[in-house]
Amino acid sequence: MKRENRVFIEKNFIVIFKAYGKAHLPENALKLFHRMDVEFHCKQTVKSFNSVLNVVIQEGYFNLALEFYSNVVDSKNFNHVHPNGLSFNLLIKALCRLGLVDQAVEVFRGISLRNCVPDNYTYSTLMHGLCNVGRIDEAVSLLDEMQVEGIFPNPVSFNVLISALCKKGDLARASKLVDNMFLKGCVPNEVTYNSLVHGLCLKGKLDKAMSLLNRMVSDKCVPNDVTFGTLIDGFVKNGRALDGVRVLVSLEEKGHCGNKFIYSSLISGLFKEGKYEQGMQLWKEMVEKGCEPNTIVYSALIDGLCREGKTDEAKEYLLEMKKKGHLPNSFTYSSLMWGYFEAGDSHKAIQVWKEMADNNCNHHEVCYSILINGLCKNGKLKEALMVWKQMLSRGIKLDVVAYSSMIHGFCNAQLVEQGMKLFHQMLCHEPKLQPDVVTYNILLNAFCTKNSVSRAIDILNTMLDQGCDPDFITCDIFLKTLRDNMDPPQDGREFLDELVVRLIKRQRTVGASNIIEVMLKKFLLPKPSTWALAVQQLCKPMKLRNSGYRDLLIQILKLRTSDFHRLHFAAKMKVDEDEPVYRIATRCDVQK
């Protein structure tokens, strides 16, 4: 066209810009935009500008998009390009994707000064950006603002907020927004329902999620793979993988097919719940139905077999997946390596480690942690130290598991002080690398075994100061020491009672509740004063609404033998007579 001196129009270039976008070549689009006027004598307008800006943003080059926007809008060479509403929408999108929400709000507030009016897309984009940084209340206020401005929200606007609230667990406000949708004439779509199903699954309200699925169908909104996948994943995460399988059966009865992600989630869940036969049966059904397993599904199966101690069978499936062209990933190899270590076969575990390197599969921190943990458990402390040094030299981040494993290895080798050095290193690190309850229990057990009870108490004090709650293993370590190593032997009642009081005073109610549960199961009843403190803390109005606390109180009431104490608790609870706690407490013949 140029050689024949044909006249170029902007539409010619916009077609090519779109083609560059489909070909994932945003740099070429930028170069051509700058050549339009000089080389082809075609003036750029806001249409070609928006086309290129959109291509750059779609490819995820947000910083480049901001630079391009600034170069064009602020340049004297492009004074004929005047941004319009779409330009501002794209600019706000780029800023939000970069997390520069305050700047996006500033651009949004300045739109009216440029003789432009925000539309649904503008509001939805900004609301999405605010929700992504946790500023949901500001996003909700924008919904009210747009209605005041006469812009009626569309389903996209509502879905942005509903999704954010559901992820946060605020289902009450999410359901109110759904009601608001209906009032505004917006019909909830599959995105709306999928968000609500996801929120209910996060809360563990799976039966309500199933009911919502039925309502979705009655509202003539067809559930899709995301709906069923979310629901099945919810069942798996809540330890109800068999119910997830029933959902899959229902899905297939309606003409849908389970995808690889659904099968991998279910197979992994069944194995984690110890349902080996059901897991293998599902695998066979998947293969029979023509659903070709990929790396993810194979990895779930291999991990499950290793959990069952069937490492040789897992190895066979690893060879099968490689023959079918599916490359094992770090998770696949890590599962097999862990399985061999658990079976006490460190030689084969190390072979798997070497196989990873031979297949150019990167050793990430989890793989290193499994290797260190396995070597330490098998008494190979020197080898574990070599791996530890290799991690440090390669700049690989050490995680809590790696530190805890090395500390355990030192303690088993009677080198507790070297373990303490690593422990102090952890305390000096960022919050992500702070010792967890497993780390503390390793050191507590080491000092108690050496009969260094005072050192163990120091570790316990550090544990409480660092915000880590003791668990039942912590209790068992001290109870065994007090019973076997003290003269005279102690039952540990006073020790645990004092621990409960310390936790309650620090407002660590969950930790205190766990210790009380241990005491009750071992028939070591807390003092009356401790009961009073515990009940007072547990029965605060906000905590009473939490079903977990209420269930714990029900358990406490059932375990107590004194009817007087039951009535005392019921009076403290100040709950309605239809509450389970009240009914249990008044199930005796003592005058109220």
TrEMBL record:
Keywords: Repeat. PPR repeats lie at residues 84-118, 119-153, 154-188, 189-223, 224-258, 259-293, 294-328, 329-363, 364-398, 399-433, 436-470. The keyword Repeat applies. The keyword Iron-sulfur does not apply. PROSITE patterns: PPR. InterPro entries: PPR_rpt, TPR-like_helical_dom_sf. It comes from the Eukaryota. Belongs to the PPR family. P subfamily. PANTHER family: OS03G0856100 PROTEIN, PENTACOTRIPEPTIDE-REPEAT REGION OF PRORP DOMAIN-CONTAINING PROTEIN. This is Pentacotripeptide-repeat region of PRORP domain-containing protein. It comes from Trifolium subterraneum.
